[in-house]
Amino acid sequence: MNTQATLPETPAGDATEPALFATMSTMRAMRRLRPDPVPDELLDRLIQAAVWGPSGGNMQRYEYVVVTDPEVMAELAPLWQRCVDAYLATTGKYAPAGMDEAAYGRMVAAIEYQRDHFAETPALIIPCYRFPEPRMEEEGVRKYAEALGPEATARMGRIQERFSALAEGSCVYPGVQNLLLAARGLGLAANITIWHLMLEEEWKAALGIPEDMHTFAAIPVGWPRGNFGPVRRRPVEEVVHRNRW
């Protein structure tokens, strides 16, 4: 069975469910955008929604670069093309397991359309985050090691880079999801990508982003050329493990 083609059990617009459920169940990645500009006040509402998202330790160290200048977008377009071409030549060359070739072909066509028309993108949002330097003192490190035990402390030393990356991401991505939900609620198309990370230094240089600031996504935003519709996802009974794996 093609599990990725399964429609959500709760239909969009079901009066028995909160409106948010209908929003989530029709929030496709919309890559074909009209070139019409998006008003700054709507983009500010997207950022406000992102700011409302939870941030680890309530540190709120996020920043958002919002690009709407066509000249800047044209400067970014070649970088986007290089990243997309690199993706399509490797990971994106093959359809995911369970997804039929025709459906994947349609998705690739949308990716290629976005690549070829990137300079016409009305708005691009880059979420950034700079994690503060950890404050460590000898007594705290000693208690940390006691609490975890020697084996787990050694393991944490081995995975510290991954732990730090996940900690930063956990401070950013809840806000990004809020932004995507807000875009859908306002009738705007948006999709999250991280392909820019393949050329992150070039993107940061083009946008004047400080070297020590990490970027976590590139989110094109605009008015959709197509229609929103139900997402196709694996059914809950295939992905849930109750109490244990």
Automatic annotation (TrEMBL):
<dbReference type="InterPro" id="IPR029479">
    <property type="entry name" value="Nitroreductase"/>
</dbReference>
<dbReference type="Pfam" id="PF00881">
    <property type="entry name" value="Nitroreductase"/>
</dbReference>
<dbReference type="InterPro" id="IPR050627">
    <property type="entry name" value="Nitroreductase/BluB"/>
</dbReference>
<dbReference type="InterPro" id="IPR000415">
    <property type="entry name" value="Nitroreductase-like"/>
</dbReference>
<protein>
    <submittedName>
        <fullName>Nitroreductase</fullName>
    </submittedName>
</protein>
<feature type="domain" description="Nitroreductase">
    <location>
        <begin position="28"/>
        <end position="223"/>
    </location>
</feature>
<dbReference type="GO" id="GO:0016491">
    <property type="term" value="F:oxidoreductase activity"/>
</dbReference>
